[in-house]
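I am writing to request your help with a piece of structural work I have in hand. I am sending you one protein, given as its amino acid sequence and as whole-number tokens for its backbone shapes. Kindly check, if you would, that the fold set down in the tokens agrees with what the sequence suggests. You will find the record immediately after this paragraph:
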Amino acid sequence: MPETRTAPTTSGIGTPYASAARTAAAPSRPAGPPPPPTREIWFAAWPVVALFILSNAAMPLYAVWQRHLGFTSGTLTLIYAAYMAGLLGVLPVAGVASDRLGRKPVLIPALLLGIVACLIYATAPSVAALVAARLLTGVATGAAVSAGMAAVTDIAAGRRLGPLLASTGMVLGAGIGPVLAGVLSETVPGPTVTVFVVEAALLATALAVVSRMPLPRRAGGTGTAAPGSWVRLPAVPRDNRRHLALGLAAFAPGISGTGFVLSLGPSLLSGLLDTANRALVGGMALAMFLSATGVQFALRRTAVRTALLASGAATVAGTLALIAAVHTATLAPLIAAVILAGAGQGAGQLGGLTLLSRKVPATRRAEANAALNAGGYFLAGALPVADGYLSDAIGLPAAATVFGFVVAALAVAGAALVAVRGGEAVECGRMGPDGPDEAE
């Protein structure tokens, strides 16, 4: 049973844990069922992992489709844009629907849409089919970052493991997808079919997990569960706007930094190593997202503000390293960019999600997650598209330099906001079955 503190939290991010401020008496709690066991939190993270495996599984296969279907690089940008349109298009409704109806009524259709997308990928006869598959993938992923991540923190019932697994599940899945697709496409016949048959099977197991999740039931359309329109820009309660702004200050530049690496890194790596091996390209993405996963476990005992500031520093260093790799055509700065960009996204994502999971009421949690991801993905999607057009006008090295400095400047501005307006620190959340957090 958690202990109480003698003074309430007044800062936006919380107060440090101080043993002198604790009392030995445990607060009384209303009678109710005990929280689910810790293993249920781990199970709850699997649907998030499975959907994010799907989100990036197509990345190593674009060259195969491009060769078979004969589309241009401009058409490839359109296919990418379909994913972002699906993701950003569903966030205005997925978060609100999840908070009103519950997590399962949003997650189950999302997983079914993901399976449909797998079938389209596996049999895609045209560019239009790929666009449709990417659109459905974006919709399914949007549900994962709102309802799926909220389900993990709901089942955690205040335990610190919840935000950690919700956040690492996203980046771990995003890293597994490309390497799984890359290895299968290099080693088995019918690569585009085999990859998505395997992914459909993974999504089917996630459906089984969701069907047995011990989630609380919610009354639809009443109470404080996202009052107002069902379709709207994701938002948070007025008292939590500061928390959302601080999370976005780190997460948005961080995920833009990983997008920068994913847009340039594969071609740089292939040129430097003189290979077009798809498993190697997938391995690069896995290394980046393993860095994002590892940094979150490394920071699980630190303060939220420390995590957000670390995100800004890593994002700045990662973008500058990638600029150096573009101009010098050397491997060392590219490797540094991959590791640092992953760390930047991971730290910012953990800090932002932890803030929202602790401060935003549970009845608005999915919409808060949607707001955080909408802001991050909008920036991460818009900047690479602009960079593509800029590359046509002034050349790749100059455009990459401009793009990198824009991302670095946003990361510096975000870190400055956190440093000035972040308030006092609170632990990011330790991993393990250590019970609920202290009362805030």
Summary: Residues 1-30, 219-223, 429-440 have pLDDT under 50 and may be disordered.
